[in-house]
Each structure stands twice: as C-alpha cells, then as structure tokens.
Amino acid sequence: MLTTYYEQDGQLRVGAEGDLRQAFWIDLYAPSTEEETRVESELNINIPTRAEMREVESSSALYHEGDTAYVTVRAVERGSSGEPGLTSFTLILAGKQFVTLRYAEPKSFQQFLARTAKPEKTFPSPESLMLCLLETIVDRDADILEEIGDTLEPISLQIFSRDTSQSMETIAATDLSLVLRSIGGAGELAARVRQSLHSISRSLPFLKVELEADTHLHARLKTLGQDVQSLLEHDNFLQTQIQFLLDSNIGLISIQQNAIMKTLSVAAVIFLPPTLIGSIYGMNFEHMPELRWQHGYPFALGLMFLSAVLPLAFFRLRRWL
User: Fold this and answer.
1) Do the Cβ atoms of 102 and 109 come closer than 8 Å?
2) Would the CA dihedral through 99, 115, 188, 29 be positive or negative?
3) DSSP state of 20
4) Which one of 37, 119, 245, 280 has the fewest beta carbons within 10 angstroms of its own beta carbon?
5) DSSP, residue by residue, 31-47
6) Is 190 helix (H, G, I), strand (E, B) or coil?
C-alpha cells in the first residue's frame, strides 16, 4: 500500500497519489511490485528488498546511493498471540522526500502516525520527520521496559515471599511453571527491546553526518543518543534481574523435587521393614516356630508396627523431617 503525505503550512496531510516528487512523505506498507517500480522510477531511487532489510551488517543497514541515504532500524512488535518480535523499517532520505518502507504496523508506528496528526506538530524538513519516527520508537521501547519492570515486581514477591506461615509442603505444592513462563516471556521481550535500541544506536553516527548542518536537529539527535544509552543500561539491569529470578525459580523447583523425593524415600524406608516381616510370615513353612503360636498373629502385627515407627522416630530425632 502506498500512502503519500503533503506538507501544508508545516502540517502533514494525506493527499491523492499524484506526482510523488511533490510529496513530503511517502509511506510504503507491504508494497506491491507496481508500487515499488513507480516510486523507484519517479524518485530515481532503489527500494531494498525485504531480505535486504533483514540483514544486520552495518553496510546493509546504513549506506548511501548517490544523494540518497538509507537507514534500516528495528522496532518491537507483538504478534496476534502476544509473542514479541522485531520488524524492520527502512528510512530513505531522497532529497526533499522522506520514504518509509515497512511490512508491519507495530504500536510504535501507530503512535508516530498519531504524533504527525497533531496540529501543533510541525515538520520543516524530511530529516525532522525521520527523527520524530526514531524518537517514537525509542519512547515505545522505554514503555516496554517499564512494562517489564512492572511484570518482574510481583514475580519477585511471589518467589521471595516472607510469609513464615508457608510450610515446606505449601512451597512444594506451588506450581512454579507459570512463574517460569512469565520470567521467560519478560526475558524474551527485553532481548527484543535491546535489539531495537542497538539498531537505532548504530544509526546515530551515520545520521550525525547527515544532520550536522542543522543545529536544532543535531541537538535532538544528541538527546536521542543519550536516551538510547540510558535505556540500554536499564535493559541490562532488567536482564540481570531476570537472570537472577530465573536462577531463583529453578532453585525453588529443585527444592520441590527434593521435597517430593524425600517424602518418597521416607515412605519407602518406613514401609520396607513391615513388608519384609509380612513376607517372612507369609511363607507358611511347616516348621516355622510362630506358625501354631496362639499370639503369633498379634506379635507379627506389633513387630510390623514397631519396625515402621522406629525409623520415623529416628528421622524426626535427627530433624530430617
């Protein structure tokens, strides 16, 4: 889909698909072959393929072709199932035109569209519009990091609960698989945010050369770089916390398994001697001394009971239970 925006008194307005050379911003959303060919012919530029947009080398993400600058960055997107992913944006500065090439519409781009629609928002140049898009992506990454922090707080409270009324049986009965899944989801999302921030961080030195002549845009670019650096540090802190919670949760799962195995081991030890005694007196040999004894049956029962109670008392005396 090809959408053209035209500048009127500093405001962006969606216009009819006329002469693309008069457009201020051209948005290519999953474009068809015909739309790509039209943009290339009218603006005299090359539109990168989707495979080229996915390449991570700096030479493929940041480059010039004549007077046209190409910048590819990545933004976090959520699929229909809520799974985090990355989508690539290729930003093209072609003279007086700004071209965006994308194959998804994440929330960051929706927020960018909302920003451009505000009457107080003006864009004197295509470079200022591109910076606005990058700032919106960074703002969205910051929101996601805050969301991750809010997710980790209740997980930490659940793992490190100081409720002394919880016994080992209560802890062992707790299903920690959901907690493990939540930690894994937070870690995956934090990794996606880090990839997005790194892609923008790599583009800043390239853009610094492009915007060096404009003092105002250069100052905005410097502020953007500081924001990206601080968010990368915050993301690193969150990933450290995620790893700590992951190790702690795995430790609790090990405690659960040890408690279960201990219970099974104690049960086996307690019931093994009575089983042995019952097996002996169930052999029915003719010359077994207690076979015709009047008190043989209660004697065998008492012996089995005593053989079960003595190990249990020993375990409690040694505080193994």
Assistant:
1) yes
2) negative
3) G
4) 119
5) --HHHHHHHHHHHT--P
6) helix
* Beta-bridge mates of residue 76: 86
Residues 6+ apart with CB under 8 A from 139: 108, 111
Q: DSSP 3-state assignment of 295? A: coil
- What's the pLDDT score for residue 168? 46
Strands 25-29 vs 97-102: parallel, antiparallel or unpaired: parallel
Please report which confidence band the pLDDT of residue 18 belongs to, taking 50, 70 and 90 as the band edges.
low
Structure confidence by residue, pLDDT tens digits, 24-35: 888 899 888 888
CA 283 to chain centre: 64
The CA distance from 139 to 11, in Å, is 22
166 or 32, higher pLDDT: 32
What is d(CA 114, CA 107) in angstroms, rounded to the nearest whole number? 11
Query: Where is 254: in which H helix or E strand?
Result: helix 215-280
Residue with tokens 């492009």: 210
- Segment 48-84, tens digit of pLDDT: 888 888 876 766 778 888 888 888 999 998 876 778 8
Spatial distance between the Cα atoms of 145 and 135, rounded to a whole number of angstroms: 15
The fold for domain 261-317 equals Methane Monooxygenase Hydroxylase; Chain G, domain 1 (1.20.58)
**pLDDT value of residue 95:** 81
The closest alpha carbon to 27, from 82, 76, 99, 135, belongs to 99
Please tell me the distance from the alpha carbon of residue 93 to that of residue 90, in angstroms, as a whole number. Answer: 10
Q: Which residues contact 82 (CB under 8 A, 6 or more apart)?
A: none
Q: Decide: helix, strand or coil at residue 102.
A: strand
Q: Which residue has the higher pLDDT, 3 or 60?
A: 3
The SS3 assignment for 188 reads: helix
Residues listed for the chain:
321
**Global pTM value:** 0.76
Q: Which of 110-114, 165-169, 225-229 has the highest mean pLDDT?
A: 225-229
